Amino acid sequence: MSTEKDLDSLLSSSHIDFDRYETLYKHFHSHPELSLQETQTASTAASHLKLLNASYEIHTSIGGHGLAGVLRNGTGKTVLLRADMDALPVKEDTGLDYASKVTMRDNDGIIKPVMHACGHDMHVTALLAAAERLAKMKNSWSGTLIVLFQPNEERAGGAQAMVDGGLYSKIPIPDLVLGQHVMARKAGSIGCRVGNIMSEADSFKITLFGRGGHGSMPHRTVDPVVLAASVVMKLQTIVSREVDPDQFAVVTVGSLQAGQTENIIADRAEIRMNVRTQDPEVRQRVLAAIRRIVKGECEASGATKEPLIEETTKFPLSLNDKSVTKSVHESFGRFFGNRFDPDTACSTASEDYSILGSSNGKPCCFWFFGGVDEKTWDETKNRSRLAEDIPVNHSPFFAPVIQPTLKTGVDALCVAALTFMRNS
Fold it and tell me: Are strands 268-277 and 200-209 parallel, antiparallel or unpaired?
């Protein structure tokens, strides 16, 4: 196994122009695209791979705007490195000179502001930089490297769409899948763990049916706003009163919409909600409680018909394979030293990357790297204000500091890949 010095020397000898990648990152950040609309992001990534002149076989338009580059370099392991590309319907408020001012029509035809509020721009840039660095190191490793750029992660459909779109009829089936995510952690830090690394997630659209009418005559109506309010409040008791305190669950209502003006009682209300769990039995208990509560409140309110409960997205539980992850841990520990945490907490967030491996029974490993300026993090921590003052992913203020975040992400991808592909 490589020593920290060996890996450091090897990566240092394969120089890449980080200034160029910082400029590319700013471009991606200021030109975000919503899920299922990642046309220009995928095109820019594909063009960059071609310009490397590194013999990558490039496959485009897989399961939508999915992109994969394959670099064959003799016999050995086939390793897939993955990045996601899509942005979020969030109005950016970071104040950066390269902040997004983009608006797009979403899949419902509604114009929305768009922002890379989850760091996918950093993921794409880091993977492109790693693709160049590993191509320059071909004499030091053997096997097949796959760099995959996935669309539509935020809506939980991109990985499955790529598989269903013939991904593995176009590229080799990997021996293992590796991925990473920038988070609101101290820049330069890395965190990973064996087993559960990210939560399972279920999202629902719930339509509640009332009877509309004049705002001055509520007795002639069934008010869906009052019904929806009762449902929302009752849903909040699931975690506090029905889930074992030793177990994990989150129930979040992210949207409640009803009516258009103040003097009309609407005839329906729409709730959009999200559930996070890390245990299959807890998940089933929470989902059953949601259905029971929604139906019970509708009956109690005299709703005109049964509620409509529709699942909109579903993320699988993300599991880090024990053998693969222990090998990655050994390399990360040697390379990153005390910046690496091998027992980071399982995240309450969710991902669909594991489908790229589980669809063929292949193991996965995923890790987190920090994006918060080191001085800012330390000062905020000393004030015990991390939860209040550090913007998290999906916040309009989320803005990873470019360095050392980008270099850490590139190093992590390269070190992990070389763990399984480096020549003896």
Answer: antiparallel
Give the residues across from 180 on adjacent strands.
Answer: 367
pLDDT in tens, 224-269: 999 999 999 999 999 999 999 999 999 999 999 999 999 999 999 9
Amino acid at 355: I
Residues that are catalytic = 86, 153
CA pair distance 344, 350, nearest whole angstrom: 15
CA angle 84, 88, 89 (to 5 degrees): 160
pLDDT of 385 higher than 70: yes
Residue 341 has, within 13 A of its CA and on its CB side, a CA count of 15
Q: 412 CB contacts (<8 Å, ≥6 apart)?
A: 180, 190, 332, 336, 367, 369
Mean pLDDT of 192-208: 97
- For residue 1, the model assigns a pLDDT of 42
Q: What is the pLDDT of residue 9?
A: 79
3-state secondary structure of 381: helix
Query: Of how many residues is the chain composed?
Result: 424
Nearest CA to 183 out of 403, 324, 352, 394 is that of 394
User: In sequence order, which ranges of 31-144 are alpha helices (DSSP H)?
Assistant: 39-51, 120-136
Torsion region of 149: left, alpha or beta (phi above 0 gives left; psi -120 to 50 gives alpha)? beta
264-321 pLDDT, tens digit per residue, is: 999 999 999 999 999 999 999 999 999 999 999 999 999 999 999 999 999 999 999 9
Helices (H), 18-109: 18-30, 39-51
* pLDDT value, residue 73: 96
In whole angstroms, what is the distance from residue 126 CA to residue 189 CA?
15
Segment 198-210 shows an average pLDDT of: 97
Core vs surface per residue 101-140: b (16+ CB within 10 A) or e: ebeeeeeeeeebbbbbbbbbbbbbbbbbbbbbbbbebeeb
Question: Do the Cβ atoms of 296 and 237 come closer than 8 Å?
Answer: no
